[in-house]
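Team,

Forwarding the record for the chain on the shared tracking sheet. I've put the sequence and predicted structure together so nobody has to dig through attachments.
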Amino acid sequence: MINVTDRAATELKRAIDEQGDAEIAIRVFVQGACGCGKAHYGMGLDKALGEGEQIFETCGVKVVVDEESAPYLEGAIIDYRDSLMNKGFTIENPNRASGGGGCGCGH
């Protein structure tokens, strides 16, 4: 399951409310791995639910995950940061490969 911090839930609810459609959910996905094998994460607003996709609610927010992304996102944490240098959502995944920090393949 994906975890959502209280701050992220507040911002996600605000984004959903701006759309004016109660059926909208947050889609979280893995875009694939680059040359070094590390995953790239993404998220957006969506209301279409495809075959094999999971939908669940956490902190009052509906979250949709496709079956290919689900194993990579197990235990991930969605947070929202607002600082002078960085504003927006982050996805922290405790399951990602460790060692070496960020991607070094140049992609």
